[in-house]
Design goal:
transcription regulation, four-stranded antiparallel β-sheet, Cro/C1-type_HTH, 8 strands
Length: 250
């Protein structure tokens, strides 16, 4: 909650560089105003009964929902969602009775995911506009695997911006849980460190032979071992491997 987050000292934030940002004389010159140096990377979980798609997330925890983009059309806000997993009937049934959205439409389907468009209800509690206004960069954004709201990874330009966002959520009764914090490393070329959950999954997958040929453990078995859904395993593996490839190949 707010008091917990506001009390966070910069010394509590994990960092490999041991510095809060790049010294002024070492920063790259740019003709536009820059807030790209330093900052804080935070892994947060946000929850409130009236958050966007909150009802659907609770009723369909076996899929992973990722908002891809949204746009304003006349007086409506349309949101495009990619949904991973295989419990699509459960998801669509929940979507039809979710009070935070209207007019859900299936736009595309693949073996392991589907793409939907929904209209966001006017009275829905949101936080994306506030993130945009303070300059927070959304790195990851998906529903929580256990059905408890949204999990989101962001880079805030400064610790004060993180505290400001927490206060904004607190004013609206949105609970904020901090899973991971670290000082942004200006030398990482935008590659974000793996979260603790991603590290745990990769460690278990490697030790149990998931990457062997033939595989020593399946995604279903990994999900059972870690107590999470299969869609959460698939999502975390994809993101973790993608970040490792980016760090190695860039």
């Amino acid at each position: 909650m707010a008091d917990d987050l506001v009390s966070i000292d910069i010394a509590d934030v994990e960092t490999d560089a041991g510095a809060e940002g790049t010294p002024e004389h070492e920063r790259e010159r740019t003709p536009v105003r820059s807030r790209a140096d330093g900052g804080v990377v935070a892994q947060l979980r946000l929850d409130h009964p009236d958050l966007f798609l909150r009802s659907t997330i609770r009723r369909a925890p076996d899929v992973s929902i990722e908002p891809e983009h949204w746009t304003a059309v006349d007086d409506r806000t349309l949101v495009f969602l990619t949904v991973h997993g295989d419990a699509f009937d459960e998801f669509e049934t929940a979507l039809e009775i979710d009070p935070t959205v209207a007019d859900p439409v299936l736009l595309d389907r693949y073996p392991d995911r589907r793409v939907y468009r929904v209209e966001r209800a006017a009275e829905t509690i949101t936080f994306t506009d506030r993130l945009a206004s303070i300059g927070a960069h959304v790195l990851e954004f998906s529903s929580c695997p256990n059905g408890d709201g949204w999990q989101i990874q962001l880079r805030f330009p400064s610790r004060d911006d993180l505290i400001e966002f927490n206060a904004y959520c607190d004013e609206r009764g949105v609970s904020v849980t901090v899973d991971h914090l670290r000082v942004s490393d200006d030398g990482d070329d935008g590659v974000v460190a793996l979260t603790e959950k991603q590290q745990d999954l990769l460690t278990t997958a490697y030790e149990e032979g998931y990457f062997d040929v033939p595989r020593g453990i399946s995604q279903d078995e990994l999900a059972t071992r870690l107590g999470i859904s299969k869609s959460a395993v698939s999502q975390r593996l994809r993101r973790a491997v993608g970040e490792l490839c980016g760090a190695t190949l860039s």
